[in-house]
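Quarterly update from the structural biology core.
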Amino acid sequence: MNVHNLLTRAGAGIIYILVILLGVFGGRYFFLAVFGIILALGLFEFYRMVEQDTSHAISKIFNIALGLLLFISVYLFLEGISLYALPVCMLVYLLILIASAICIRRHDILHGIIYSVFGQMYITMPLSLLMVISYSYQHSRAAGGYDWVPLLALFVFIWVNDTAAYFFGSLTGKHKLIPHISPHKSVEGFFAGIFFSLLGSLLFARFFPEFSPLFWMGFALVVALFGTVGDLFESLIKRTCSVKDAGNLIPGHGGMLDRIDSLLVAVPAAYLYLILFLA
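Predicted structure, tokenized:
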């Protein structure tokens, strides 16, 4: 990678991080706006990838709109504004998919329904759980139920893991991790990512002592491990769809889905960890 490409990648990465931090520190409304946009972009890139070979009967615009409605309905539920919006959105979405299967005469209609539902499970559900995490573990600094601390930790551990794995894998990586899925990932990079994530957890233990160092180390380990799984899984999707990147929105990084792939599997795992550790 030449200097120009490295600077482009670094600049785009910094802008992406600043946008994420705005969504994390800005409070519930900024979170809703920033991650709502990320959700829409991620869904668009996913459905565009799976539609490359053939156009599916169920519109990706419909799926993106319903994904956003589901995301907003989770917010309404958490705020106590409406307890009915979430189940109503889910029911309406399922009924429309079932009606599509009955009324649309195409041999691949079932494939379209599977792609539609999987996209929501793969992208909408984790980003909605991310919002649930921000409302579940409140500290004194939280205003009105929103808490940015677990969100910040989640993103920092993902970034540290990805960055350490990338650089140490590039410099010292000799043993491929899973070459048939992602030929560039190495065993050395994998362990470097975990090691530096654990180091980062000690900083969180220092600045947020309301949780023990053991808690933060466990949190970092879970995020690093499952974040790597998320990265590998998106690589498998791209390889299956015969594309290099999910998009070209972020110079040097690919699309939005390429940036949040680790997050999509790390979030459910982190949520489960928080439930088990803090129950």
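The chain has one domain: 3-278.
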